[in-house]
UniProtKB/TrEMBL annotation:
Keyword rRNA processing assigned: no
Required cofactor(s): L-ascorbate
Organism: Saxophila tyrrhenica
Protein name as annotated: Fe2OG dioxygenase domain-containing protein
Keywords: Dioxygenase, Iron, Metal-binding, Oxidoreductase
One function term, GO molecular function aspect: procollagen-proline 4-dioxygenase activity
Domain annotation Fe2OG dioxygenase: ranges: 151-275
Length: 281
């Protein structure tokens, strides 16, 4: 009897077993891990659009004056830091001034499509020009983080909320892949001539020390679940969006609470990890 049919059967069996093992291992190389929200068809166009909005501040010629801040670690896992005095009064005024005439309705991304949806996000946003003041703020944001590798600043947007303006619960993760993700957030308050408008993190735990009540709503004003940071001019909350395994932290889900009186203006500083994206230094 010839051994040919036997060899063919063995090859087919080995191939079948290999396919099963490959699928059990999660098809490495074919798809991104399930904790990273991404659709592979979108990766290329999103990365290209992103690349255009990623900037790196001028580190050679720009002279930024030294700026002291008062930092308080709120949580180490995930890392959340409260920064008192992230911006000076002059910087705040300047950012508000350069936003004038640029306000447009805020949008949200739904399955990769940009839409307006006031039930989710009701505010206006302004893409601010990268003058020296803005670049010094970009520098500050990178310095605080320790200049992480392959990490850039997304062009800065200010955001204005009038009465009933809000941003419902979301993550800042954005669409992420293994090569590109919004690694961290600075939520900065520029104007807080308002009632309401705090930033709520329902999955963060209230700290024990009452000294935090300068910055967060306490006692009968504590509001809903978790922790609500008060909108305070010039101050910022910084947090990391991913753990070291590049899994999005579930604890950093947050919302901009409705403004019930007056106006709040915020500034988003997002740092974006983009593997291989070279900065023009
Ligand atoms: O305005 C706030 O308090 C939160 C804003 C925010 O989460 C965002 O713009 O991503
Ligand atoms: Fe956010």
């Amino acid at each position: 009897m010839s051994d040919k049919p036997f060899r063919w059967r063995t090859i087919v069996e080995v191939a079948a077993i290999s396919i099963v093992i490959y699928i059990v291992l999660g098809a490495p190389g074919l798809k991104t891990p399930s904790h990273i929200e991404s659709t592979s068809e979108q990766d290329v166009p999103i990365a290209r659009a992103r690349a255009e909005s990623l900037v790196y501040p001028d580190w050679k010629d720009l002279k930024c004056s030294k700026h002291g801040v008062d930092m308080h670690i709120f949580s180490t896992q995930p890392l959340v830091i409260y920064i008192d005095g992230f911006l000076s009064g002059d910087e705040v005024e300047h950012l508000v001034d350069i936003s004038e005439g640029k306000w447009q309705k805020s949008t949200v991304f739904n399955a990769g499509v940009e839409t307006e949806d006031e039930a989710v996000r009701k505010s206006e946003k302004a893409l601010i020009p990268r003058d020296d003041v803005v670049q010094c703020i970009e520098q500050r944001a990178l310095s605080i983080q320790g200049w992480p590798k392959d990490t850039f600043i997304e062009r800065l947007w200010t955001q204005r909320y009038n009465v009933s303006g809000h941003y419902s619960f979301h993550y800042d993760w954005s669409t992420a892949t293994k090569e590109a993700m919004r690694v961290s957030t600075f939520m900065v308050y520029l104007k807080a001539d308002c009632e309401g408008g705090g930033t709520n993190f329902p999955r963060l735990r209230m700290p024990d020390d009452p000294k935090w009540c300068r910055y967060i709503q306490c006692g009968k004003d504590a509001g809903g679940e978790g922790v609500t940071f008060k909108a305070k001019e010039g101050n910022a909350i910084f947090w990391m969006n991913f753990d070291s395994e590049r899994r999005g932290y579930k604890e950093v889900i947050h919302a901009g609470m409705p403004v019930t009186k007056g106006t709040k203006i915020g500034l988003n500083i997002w740092s974006w990890y983009q593997k291989g994206h070279m900065a023009e230094l």
